[in-house]
Amino acid sequence: MKRLLAFALLCATQAQAESWGGKDKWQHAIVGAGTGAVFAKSTDDWRYGCAAAAAVGLAKELYDRNNRNRHTPSFKDFAVTAAAGCGSSIVVAPNYIGLNIKF
Question: What letter would DSSP give residue 88?
Answer without folding.
Answer: E
